[in-house]
Amino acid sequence: MITDQELDILINELYESYGYDFSGYSKASFKRRVDRLYQLDGFTNFQSFLSKIIDDSDYFSRMVEEITVNITEMFRDPHFYRILRTEILPVLATKPFIRIWHAGCSTGEEVYSVAILLKEANLLEKALLYATDISPPVLEVARKGVFPLRMMKQYSENYMASGGKKDFSHYYTANYGLAKFGEDLSSRMVFSQHNLVSDRSFNEFDLILCRNVLIYFDKELQERALHLFDDSLAKLGYLALGTKETIKFTSMQKRYKQLEKEKIWRKTH
Amino acid sequence: MEKDTLISNCKILIIGGSAGSLDVLIKILPHLDIPSFALVIVLHRKHTEDNTLEELIAAKSIIPLKEVEDKVEILPGYIYIAPSDYHLLFEKNNLLSLDTSEKVNYSRPSIDVAFESVADAYGKAVVGVLLSGANADGTDGLIAIKNAGGIIIVQQPETADMPFMPSHAVQNTSPDFIVDIPALLDLIKRINS
Ligand SMILES: C[S@@+](CC[C@H](N)C(=O)[O-])C[C@H]1O[C@@H](n2cnc3c(N)ncnc32)[C@H](O)[C@@H]1O
After folding, report:
1. Less packed terminus of chain B by CB within 10 Å, N or C?
2. Could A28 and B98 be called an inter-chain contact, meaning their C-beta atoms sit closer than 8 Å?
3. pTM for the whole thing?
């Protein structure tokens, strides 16, 4: 197992060589991910692992992809999507344009799910979904809108549990074990690389989703990311986090009103 | 087991279990006073959004339950339950972290993941208990706790509804104690006393 000291050396070298700063990541989770990669790729000494990462930028990309957790689903936590459908979209519907930011979108399942909700509410044509992630390979998958067909049964159940009434299979075409989602959905999406550690606000949004990303950060970095969202939210805009994440205990909290027990906060001023 | 064995300097008592383990907890919890350590429970649970497990455990114990969210502080005298669909991790600054990475042993939360992490963060201040279950989860975690200097306790397989998990641990680790339910209760009561 990698020691804490080796982990610090690695974090330092990643910053020096590639400009990626992982010092604000949750140590417990980051260490576990690095250890997993180290073992997966059969390294037996830390020095050779470190040299490989520093000398081989392709391996560095693999590392970023592997240490970040990319697991996601469509309509993950159906209850959350039900609230979006019934409480949030009707409010956004009154606006001439709707701008949404998915921060840490991974392979895009969340973005396609929200696009489906927008379409069903007849709001998709006036909406733009900006979807960003630190890791280019996941964005590449997201852009294509092609997901494994074997997942569709569960996604369809999630969709129905979120209040969806259509036949879910209308949203994709099945081919060779893959489900390709319609271009009517993807044409309203913009994907780009954005690092919540170091990049700035790039637009103003009515709704920001950042779900199951902050859990990988320590409290200071969480605070930084939350301020970035604060700077990027329009007045009366909404911020949606994962089911176990919160803005409680941050300085922003007093300017936000939580939607009952949901992990959704509205910017009041 | 010696009658007067004493486990001291425990900061975290962590209990892992799967099928058949909830019954054990329900038998033990009503008899425990507010402890001088944190009590962490990691059970294999269904992927659902409800809180029935939390409610059930809260109803059986006078020890207050702290809701587990990302980066909550871990304090003595409280119960913490790993939420469904997240792995539970321990930071070295007394905070809990959650993680949605791949299932381990078909489980999230996985007992191995929580045990390995608590061992890394708290070393010999950990007492790990593995209860009934039908899966191999927990064994590697117990090994990690033991290697870090902690104490490991396994439910006597014959007293478990599902003996596979404790048997697997007994065969592959060197438990400090292998106990039935009354003896487990007795041991826990005497931690730090
Ligand atoms: C578990 S996924 C969350 C996916 C989706 N939001 C969901 O809830 O299902 C976490 C994502 O955060 C991304 N991520 C990690 N660090 C990041 C950073 N510094 N900036 C932007 N994205 C980051 C990872 O690449 C990964 O795709």
Report:
1. C
2. no
3. 0.95
Indicate yes or no: CB of B99 within 8 angstroms of CB of A29. Answer: yes
Nearest CA to ligand 1 atom 15: A68
Q: Is residue A27 a part of any domain in this protein?
A: yes
- Whole-angstrom distance, CA of residue B24 vs CA of residue B17: 9
Q: Looking at the predicted complex, does its ipTM rise above 0.85?
A: yes
Q: Tell which of A43, A68, A93 closes a domain.
A: A68
Please state whether beta strands A172-175 and A178-181 pair in parallel, antiparallel, or not at all (unpaired): antiparallel
Q: Are residues A57 and A85 in the same domain?
A: no
Residue range of the domain that includes B119: 12-190
pLDDT of residue B3: 47
Q: What integer pLDDT is reported at residue B116 of this predicted model?
A: 98
Tokens matching residue A14: 């990643």
Q: Which segments in chain B show pLDDT lower than 50? A: 1-3
Residues B89, A26: C-beta atoms closer than 8 Å: yes
Q: What is the pLDDT of residues A204-240, one digit of tens each?
A: 999 999 999 999 999 999 999 999 999 999 999 999 9
Domain coverage including residue A245: 78-267
B137 is catalytic: yes
Query: CA-nearest residue of chain A to B96?
Result: A28
Cα distance between residue A203 and residue A237, in whole Å = 13
Nearest atom of ligand 1 to the alpha carbon of A72: 9
Contact criterion met (CB below 8 Å) for B24 and B181: yes
